[in-house]
Amino acid sequence: MDTDLYSRAKIAEQANVSPQKVYRYLKDNNINPVKKISRTDYFSKEDAQSIIDFFRAENESIEANNVDSEKDKQGSEFDTYILLKNQIDDLNKELSKLHKRLESKEGEVSELHALLSQEQQLARTEQMKRIELENTNVQLIETRNADSDEKDRRIVELENQLAAEKNKGFFAKLFSK
Predict the structure, then answer these.
(1) What is the 3-state secondary structure (H, E, C) of the chain?
(2) What digits encode the pLDDT tens for the residues 71-100?
(3) What are the tens digits of pLDDT across the range 133-177?
(4) How many C-beta atoms surround the C-beta of residue 5 within 10 A?
(5) Euclidean distance between CA atoms 157 and 153, whole angstroms
(6) Do 53 and 25 contact (CB within 8 A), yes or no?
(7) What is the pLDDT of residue 79?
(8) What CA–CA distances, in Å, run from 120 to 5, 116, 134, 145, 146?
(9) 35 forms bridges with which residues in the sheet?
(10) How far from each other are the two terminal CA atoms of the chain, in whole angstroms?
(11) % of the chain beyond a pLDDT of 70
(12) Cβ atoms 55, 67 nearer than 8 A
């Protein structure tokens, strides 16, 4: 067999691609075999070399894209890092603001607590004064009632004396004390 002839399998092996890919290339570019033995097609050295060169160039292009893709990936990772760092900084600023607001609110709560305590103390004082006033009023009422009872008793006594005087005759009134 000629050493200047190449089968599809040999071309695929040297180009580092599958035989199906070589077959599709041959079919798309209308490259016909120079010789056909049994079911195997053979191609000239020049055709084989052009096919191998095409696939090597394609592989190099793919590798270059992979390198660019890797660089893009690294750049993308760096961009992601910067983005995340900025987000963390923003969140830290927001957290600082929230801490300040919390401290402010805690101050307000303390003030309100002090006011509530004062209000409760005033309410207790007011309640004690009310109780004291009620007790004083009760004493006054009892005193007035006692005085009123005494006056009522004296009035009844005087009315009884007056009634007794009315019942006495004229001469009894003149000569009695």
Answers:
(1) CCCCCEEHHHHHHHHCCCHHHHHHHHHHCCCCCCEEECCEEEECHHHHHHHHHHHHHHHHHHHHHHHHHHHHHHHHHHHHHHHHHHHHHHHHHHHHHHHHHHHHHHHHHHHHHHHHHHHHHHHHHHHHHHHHHHHHHHHHHHHHHHHHHHHHHHHHHHHHHHHHHHHCCHHHHHHCC
(2) 666 667 888 888 888 889 888 988 898 898
(3) 999 888 888 888 888 888 888 999 988 888 877 777 777 767 765
(4) 19
(5) 6
(6) no
(7) 81
(8) 110, 6, 21, 37, 39
(9) 42
(10) 183
(11) 90
(12) no
Among the listed residues 10, 2, 21, 1, the one whose alpha carbon sits nearest the alpha carbon of residue 48: 10
- The span from the CA of 16 to the CA of 54, in Å, is 11
CB atoms within 10 A of CB 48: 23
Rounded Cα distance between 132 and 145, Å, is: 20
CA distance 139 to 146: 10
What was the pLDDT predicted at 149?
A: 83
pLDDT digit string, tens, across residues 57-67: 888 877 777 66
Q: Count CB atoms within 10 A of the CB of residue 55.
A: 19
